[in-house]
């Protein structure tokens, strides 16, 4: 599929196929129907992702368009707790909720009662029980008609995560969300729509995990809106380790009010084609945003990160630190942008992207950028791309450490700065185990590089 007409038809075909699933929500809400209809209309004219668009210059969707995906239309009520044992984190005391192919599975949650002031459930259930609140929050940060994949998600919105932490509520246990993508006979279009709202003074931790069974082919097109009111604080861990044949796109939209705090660590290791977009907007003074990311990219993989941070209020701070380890023929993209408007004096903003290439065939396109229109700010940005230092390897080998072990230790040391941002021990230990396993699998290729 190469022509613009064929590409447009791909989107319109998904829209037509998904209409039945989208309208399975029984409630008829004018505001939701209006958003859906606007998104449907926008799909007919929005620019198609391609090299002429700056945001898609380095990321082709041709492989995605080659598949005929079918929108998910059925729930997965038959799943039982024993079916997800392989995906559970040991020694984790959390409020757990599970979505299978974007649909909430009530039988897999591990709680019946939540603390007062806390709602953790599905968007579809919230539409039945609190539609007026959703009408206020929905779409505050998301531009339904400006991004074609967001418009596709909105046009076919059906279910997803809904979290609401009420005023001054401190949730002692983290929330764990498992997005489990199950392979079916035909490639699936999976489109969760997530809404997370923390009222004034609320505090919570969120663990999001994207997992899959086997080597299934599917397209996960997720959208998340996160709204933090005054003095609210959210710590967010996001782990993506899906099928090596999966396509994963997630668009996150974050809105921060006065003196709110957002901490996010994302780790991406899976998928054939995976892209994580995050847009940050400050609504008042004194907010703080800190994001960190680690991506490991191997043969026949593309992992893409896009960050768009807009400082348009004074006295806000943001720090963004992303690192990548690439091996084989892996390819990564990092596109980070911090905009400081004229009135955003006293802004403190920093952006860094560092990459470690373990083979000569690995490739990274990195473009951190600053646009500054204020004159009283502290801002910096930088990027590096390099290989393991021969002197470090020689030093470790001279002390009896074999080459493969030395390389693994250096890679883990490189990633350590990002891992240290994960304060929940079970989550960090799980990621470290995954890193060890991945590096063990590529040990032979690391040796080949050294022999060169």
Task: Please specify the SSE layout and strand pairing.
Layout (H helix, E strand, L loop, with lengths): L3 H19 L7 H14 L18 H4 L4 E2 L23 E6 L2 E2 L13 E5 H7 L1 H7 L10 H8 L5 E5 L9 E7 L6 E3 L2 E6 L4 E10 L5 E11 L4 E8 L6 E10 L4 E8 L4 E10 L5 E10 L4 E10 L5 E10 L4 E10 L7 E10 L5 E10 L5 E9 L3 H8 L5 H17 L5 H17 L1 H9 L1
Parallel strand pairs: 1-7, 2-6, 5-8, 6-9, 7-10, 8-10, 9-11, 10-12, 11-13, 12-14, 13-15, 14-16, 15-17, 16-18, 17-19, 18-20, 19-21
Antiparallel strand pairs: 2-3, 4-5
Helix pairs in contact: 2-6, 7-8, 8-9, 8-10
Structure description:
There is one protein chain. By secondary structure, the chain is an alpha/beta fold. The protein has a domain at 4-284. The protein is built from 10 helices and 21 strands. The longest helix has 19 residues, at 4-22. The protein starts with a helix and ends with a helix. The relative contact order is 0.09.
Summarize the structure.
With 452 residues, the protein is α/β, with parallel strands linked by helices.
Cα shape: globular
Biggest sheet descriptor: 11 strands, mixed
> Roughly what is the average pLDDT, rounded to an integer?
91
Strand content: 35-45%
Protein traits:
452 residues; 24% helix; 10-stranded mixed sheet; globular; 36% strand; disordered C terminus; 11-stranded mixed sheet
